[in-house]
Amino acid sequence: MSASDSFAHSLRGIIAELDGAEPSHTHLNRAAIDVDRLGRHLGGLGLANDREIGRAFTGAIAALASAHPVAQDKRADAVSRALADLRTALAHAENGAPHPPSGEADAERP
């Protein structure tokens, strides 16, 4: 299994744990920590769309954080936003191509 395949597999696991789980502080914290840990490995994968994945991770963590001050039975919207961002990140990870060996592609990226 390549590093990018392992990354996508780990991301699928985070989504599965968060999807349908009772949105307790423990579940929200665990998901945010797992996303953060996975994000720390993102740069080493060399995916061409790593920025998009990073943005989606940032959105997911922000959504999870916004759920904390809300009563547990009202957290579904925030969790749905986090899941949408994580699924976006997964789509980018699954469709991502490796960076070209030179830095030329980075110069062209916004």
What does this protein structure show overall?
The protein has 110 residues and is mainly alpha-helical. It has 5 helices and no strands. It has helices spanning 3-18, 25-40, 50-67, 76-95, 104-108. Mean pLDDT is 85; it is low at 102-110.
Question: What descriptors fit this protein?
Answer:
110 residues; mainly alpha; 5 helices; elongated
Layout of helices and strands, plus pairs?
Elements: H1 3-18, H2 25-40, H3 50-67, H4 76-95, H5 104-108
Helix pairs in contact: 1-2, 1-4, 2-3, 3-4
Short description:
This protein has 110 residues and is mostly helical.
| First-residue to last-residue Cα separation | 31 Å
What is the radius of gyration?
15 Å
Broad structural category: mainly alpha
User: How many strand elements?
Assistant: 0
Order of helices and strands: HHHHH
